[in-house]
Amino acid sequence: MLEDYPVLRRDYPLNETVLDLWVKDKECPYTETKPFSWFRGYHVGGRSLMWGRQSYRFNKWDFEANLKDGHGVDWPIRYEDLAPWYSHVEKFAGIQGSKEGLEVLPDGEFMPAMELNCVEKDVAEKLKKHYNGNRHLIIGRSANITVPHEGRTNCQYRNRCWRGCPFGGYFSTQSSTLPAAMKTGKLTLRPFSIVTQVLFDKDSKKATGVEILDATDNKTYQYKSKIVFLCASSFNSTWVLMNSATDIWPEGLGSSSGELGHNVMDHHFRCGAGGTVEGYSDRYTYGRRPTGIYVPRFRNIYEDKRSYVRGFGYQGGAGRGRGVQVAEFTIGAELKEALSVPSDNWHMGIMGFGEMLPYHENKISLNKNVKDKWGLPVLDMDVEIKENEKKMREDMMNDAKEMLEASGVKNAYTYDYGYEVGMGIHEMGTARMGRDPKTSVLNSNNQVWDCKNVFVTDGACMTSASCVNPSLTYMAMTARAANFAVEELKKGNL
Amino acid sequence: MERRELLKTIALLTGTAVVGGEIFLTGCKNPVTSKSAFTPAMISLLDEVAETIIPTTDTPGAKTAKTGAFMQIMIEDCYTKKEQDAFMKGIEELEKKCNTENGVSFTKLTPEKRLAFLQRLEREAKEYNENLKKEKEENEKTKKEDPPPHYYSMMKQLTLWGFFSSETGMTETLRHAPVPGRFDGNVPYVKGEKAWAE
Questions:
Q1: Residues of chain A below pLDDT 70
Q2: CA distance to partner chain A, nearest, from residue B112 (Å)
Q3: Complex-level ipTM
Q4: C-alpha distance across the termini of chain A, in Å
Q5: pTM for this one?
Q6: Interchain pair B181, A341: CB under 8 A
Q7: Which among A253, A241, A232, A256 is positioned nearest to A459, based on CA atoms?
Q8: B181 vs A283: CB contact, 8 Å cut-off?
Q9: pLDDT reading at B115 higher than 50
Q10: What is the distance between the alpha carbons of residues A21 and B2, in angstroms, rounded to a whole number?
Q11: In contact, B174 and B2? CB cutoff 8 Å
């Protein structure tokens, strides 16, 4: 295995239960001007099978942030534009969560929420009290269904999501969108197809389809269409654009603004705090809940003002581990007994997930000197976090400890496991939306400014990152753009 | 993440990082693997050592969990050459020491004598590992491979690791619910009840 993953062997998502689902970086290399962890899934269903399932709406401030603090460019849409589409995809995918009435984390169309365990409830109450109702600990909203939905069985609390749930308990292409698309009778699925470029007709200034390379026979095929949606997981959508219409724009379709490949974002994380909780040695849990807790952002909102901009949220949870209280040199029956019961105390831990700003100089580009298994040029990563993120990380650790201690958590400690960009597996940017074709790649309907019948609706389109997990926003954006495309087609505008 | 937790616990209990743990967590296999010279006699010796550490009580012990065979796989797949050599040499040393102290092979000892012998090894291993600390700190700076811990520590690590990831360990000594079907975050716990395997 190590030979197949010379780069990504260093990171946590790789293990034998899901190894066949992560792209082998030996076959599909990339280069790192600066360290970047790039986790990809090139099978049918892609990363929808291995995603973390956390599902949150951006809030109204997220869409105004760039305009207000001057980083990046202004989003061409506002929360109100996306709200109905959040509802649409939440109802379709099935999101469990609790309604909290918080401006910072808008409620959605939720299935009944999974429950906090007894320790998390206790911490939530103490937190609320200590911070006068201004900080909240809620159940992590996730795309695990808690009631049967569209022929799918509700979550069975096995917490085996990554292996592909046989119950269809979480939202994935296989459990949800693919069956729905098959039902229309209009879907042709063509796996093992690497889209190498969008075919562009310079007279009509429109795309006429795509060219693909069949990964199994190395032959190219062309498919014609009226519209093209690029949803190839952020960087690969941009990679396709970079390889398209290069006779007109050397840097690729959508590059006329000079922003294609730029403004890479991810969520920085892997720092926070933990500690032990006493007084619950007579309580335990049953079942393996596939989500944790969430603490919505509280920094730089309302009256709060920090030395950095934007903010972060926390994910984590409480659990009761196994016994480790063993006297020195104990072996035999005594050791076995001690290790077969739960530990006396519970552990509570929270980890920050912070917003990363869109910096123009954080970029990906084509590296034509390195080719993948099929002879295609690869991407080079040149991305780093800067002062704003580093300052935020201090708060992510220290606030976590302070909050845990304020909630009665004992032996609180902070940690920072270190972060390099990409580890969040939330690649965003590189073909951002904007109001001006001179400074953005896509317009407010996710159309490429230079080619109106090409839409990019995955993470590549993101103008800023918020601090919440982004998948639900991509879904809402895609549904909105698809609806727009159909309307335009009907009107004969595309 | 469960396995990460298990490895943390084992490291805590043996006072040294779990040998092979990092390679294991990234899915094995170690490219330097040389088919080491495990014999059936060695496997059964390791089974008996493991059984002394985690014996059969009202539930099966490490021998039933085939911990000896587990050790062979982990050593071949996840140990470096240096660690493999140290382990193989350790098997010899254990036998030699046992013969010197007791006049017979480990497998010929009564359960009580096996326990007493391994308890002495526990102390020896602790001292040995502590003496390695300085060398490890030096290696930290120069990014050199750490020296393997005492052979007994490796045996104990692999025993706990193998047993608590085995079917019997996870379903009989611990509790396991393959398909819980529901979640309850507040159930009564009576002291002595088994822990969930995951």
A1: 1-2, 12
A2: 10
A3: 0.92
A4: 47
A5: 0.93
A6: no
A7: A232
A8: no
A9: yes
A10: 20
A11: no
